[in-house]
User: Fold this.
Amino acid sequence: MSDENLPYSERPQWADVTPIPQDDGPNPLVPIAYSNDYKDTMDYFRALIRCNEKSARALELTADIIEMNPAHYTVWGYRQDVLFSLGADLHKELDFIDSIASEQAKNYQVWHHRQVVVDKLGEYERELPFINGILEEDSKNYQAWSYRQWVVQRFGLFDKEMSYTDDLLVFDIRNNSAWNYRHFIFSSSPRTSEEIEKEIDFAKHKVELVPNNPSSWSYLEAMLKKDNRPLKDAEPFLQSLRAKGVQSPHLLSFFIDMYEQEAKVNGQAINSEALQMCDDLAERWDVIRQNYWRFRKSNLEQPCK
Assistant:
């Protein structure tokens, strides 16, 4: 049997280390039933921490623990210290992270460790292809999107990201993560009114394609606000959808928001159509949230302050 298949307590190269067992106190209430392999490995990990050993075998040991428990943030942190102390090959470390991420794509510690390593390395060439591969498996992986934002900011890679979201939204127009990321990219630098108008048209087109997609509506509203424009500027578009017979709770909700904003700005009573739309939503188009729409109506009936 090779040494790597032996418990650490039976490996000759670890004979100089005195393992430190976990101490849960004299009367642990609910002790965790760790496997023997995990207990053995962690006993040696505690010993290394105590003496602050930074060595190749420390990397080996932390890798074994990560394989068993990839969420162990203390082990990841110690591994970083060892890597940087030894001046280890960080490209090989990215290979290691790749292997872990393939099975642990939503594990925060994996992504944070990669961020620390890439920041130290100062190279980004592997990162977007790596993230793309993860997102192809799960297009709404929060950790992957957060890391992508960091990579793009860290290395100034904004230029092609709008077209990237174009492709994603063609594939899945309801991908709210892609919409959110598009807003992040678009907001990363000052924009002219012409650029914002183009984004407004983009959002309108997506709304026309799928009127029941809330992400498109949210993006449209966000772009109007970004240009300090009232929601009423979208009224011709809303009326055109209405004329086409579009029946969407998001269309009615946008109308209500528009009427409410207009009433507050002008200090006048809400347009009665907004109250009727609340009834329509509660009774027909968004029944699952009928209590919300009744509450909303009662608020709209109050005098504007």
User: Anything to note?
Assistant: The radius of gyration is 28 Å.
